[in-house]
Write a structure and sequence with these properties.
With 111 residues, this protein is an alpha/beta fold. 50% of the residues lie in helices and 20% in strands. The protein has a 3-stranded parallel beta sheet with strand order 4-3-5. Strands 1-2 form a two-stranded antiparallel sheet. Helix 1 runs antiparallel to helix 2 and helix 2 packs across helix 3. The protein is globular and about 45 Å long. The N and C termini lie far apart (31 Å).
Length: 111
């Protein structure tokens, strides 16, 4: 359903800004294209429907793209607070049996 909404919106407003983040502007078409690319990358590492994937990112465009990519695969997005301590993150990762983690270089050190 989320993927269908993105596809319809990208078809109707391809060049409209969907995300404005500091100096970055991302259109609906760009979100759709990047979502498909990321979902293919996740699929290539074995992520499939029903798999849980943690997203440990601040509010940023990459969070949105990750969420859409996981929806595209019908995987389970597990958004975790990027301010969690290592112990809190580890508990959530183990308890949710995540197959992968999407994060940035700053947070990769604690995962």
């Amino acid at each position: 359903m989320l993927t269908e909404m993105l596809n319809k919106t990208a078809a109707k407003f391809p060049n409209k800004n969907a995300i404005v983040y500091a100096e970055t502007r991302i259109t609906y078409q760009e979100i759709q294209t990047q979502t498909i690319s990321l979902s293919q990358g996740l699929k290539s590492i074995g992520i499939k429907q029903g798999d849980s994937v943690a997203i440990i990112l601040p509010n940023c465009p990459e969070f949105v793209l990750s969420f859409f990519a996981l929806a595209h695969l019908k995987s389970i997005a597990l958004p975790l607070n990027p301010l969690f301590k290592k112990e809190e993150i580890n508990y959530c990762l183990i308890d949710s049996q995540v197959k992968a983690i999407i994060t940035d270089a700053k947070r990769a050190k604690i995962c």
